[in-house]
Amino acid sequence: MRLQPAFLAFLLLALAGCGAVPGSKPTERVARQAGSVPVAVARPEVRQCQAELGQTGSRFSPLTDRFYGAGCSTTNSVSLQGVGGDRGEFTVTNLGAVACPLANTFAAWARYGVDRAARQILGSPLVRIETMGSYSCRNVAGTGRLSAHSRAEAIDVSAFVLADGRRISVLSGWNASRQEREFLQVIHKSACKRFGTVLGPDYNRAHHDHFHLEHGTGSFCR
Ligand SMILES: [Zn+2]
Question: Which residues form the signal peptide (predicted)?
Answer without folding.
Answer: 1-20
